[in-house]
Amino acid sequence: MSDAFSTPKLPGTGILEPLGDEDRDILSGYGEFLPVNPDQHLIEQGMSQSALFYVISGKLHATVTMNGRTVLVGTIEKGETIGEINLLDPSKASATVTAVEFSQVWKIDTASLEQYINEYPKPAAWLLIGIGKTIAHRLRNQNEKIVSLRAM
User: Fold this and answer.
1) pLDDT bucket at 144, cuts 50 / 70 / 90
2) Which 3-state string (H, E, C) describes the chain?
């Protein structure tokens, strides 16, 4: 039986797809790998938030509580990210993110991202493009929802 510690790896999916194995290995050292147990909050609505979370495995729910009512606003699964906006513009979290099942995530904060950008500008550019595409995709989806609600 081996006692060797197995270091988690960032997979080449989602915003990390354009990065090669070596680039992802380097990037992983700028963040931290976190286990998230079922019913554990990764992010809490209203709390300061300045990090991006990349889901390696598992499933999480994003919920918003308003007027004492909690509403599910999305499910986050393998290869998806959480916190893109607050990574670039730190503020308060707009939702609570809770693990539905055991999940593994990778977290990078704003200061660490800035250090990575300065030290590895080319792969960082690809990472930022991926983050930008994710934000644009989510904004388009929200705009479509608003339009469809107003059309009712």
Assistant:
1) confident
2) CCCCCCCCCCCCCHHHCCCCHHHHHHHHCCCEEEEECCCCEEECCCCEECEEEEEEECEEEEEEEECCEEEEEEEEECCCEECHHHHHCCEECCCEEEECCCEEEEEEEHHHHHHHHHHCHHHHHHHHHHHHHHHHHHHHHHHHHHHHHHCC
Question: 77, 82, 1, 13: which is closest to 45 by C-alpha?
Answer: 82
- Write out the two tokens for 22: 């070596």
pLDDT > 70: what percent of the chain?
95
Segments forming the whole domain that contains residue 18 = 14-150
Could you tell me if residue 1 is inside a domain? no
Give this prediction's pTM.
0.88
In a domain, 4, yes or no: no
Q: Are 52 and 83 in contact (CB under 8 A)?
A: yes
pLDDT value of residue 6: 58
Residue 79: CATH number of its domain = 2.60.120.10
- Within a domain: 105: yes
